[in-house]
Amino acid sequence: MTNDEVELDFRRAERTGLDEAVYGAGKSPEQLAFIVEAALERGARLLITRLPIPQFETLPESIRSCLDYCPVSSTARVGRILPFVKAPRIALLAAGSSDIPVTREAERTLHHYGDDTALFADVGVAGLWRLMTRIEAIGAFPVVIAIAGMDAALPTVVAGLIKSALIAVPTSVGYGVAQGGRVALEAILASCSPGISVVNIDNGFGAACAALRIVHTLDAAVLASSASHGLSLTSQENRS
Fold this sequence. Notes:
This protein is α/β, with parallel strands linked by helices.
């Protein structure tokens, strides 16, 4: 199987802890078919993002049948599904129901890598009471992804109320001067709440990957601490 236009990175997980992911938009049916077949041949797991329904439907049935496809998030997964081994550590906040496609992209990315999530939908600041009734539950998660369009006030408000690491995703939702998400992006970048990380417009995938790097680092720190504690106990026992 050869294709001089595609070279997949099957060793990415060894370097970064995250398996290969493929940006589907702009790829031909032939390129996507090659990518899926290459992953299947190696028994590899693969996430494809930005694969809208019309593009998905151009794929041969033999390829479509191998994909776990979600039309809302425009994502497809290849290979085995990882089980969740821990309780959710990452909360997803969707300001409005129009932000759900980007939110689902983040959710599907997290699920692909084996992390369960908790979704808090329709908590935008236009109905602040909906956020405030859930803010205590939201603050219990070590990492929060806040997804919002229009003026994107949600991340600023949430960051002023919780201690968790917060990743903001501006979306392209909004009328006229919202400029396809540019206003949301700049509003978050100019936020008066310190410590907000920001990804590109509509980039639920990128936000999920940033959240995964944080929780993976936390996991590594816990393991290192446990190992250090074990060595300390062994040393004390040897001295005694």
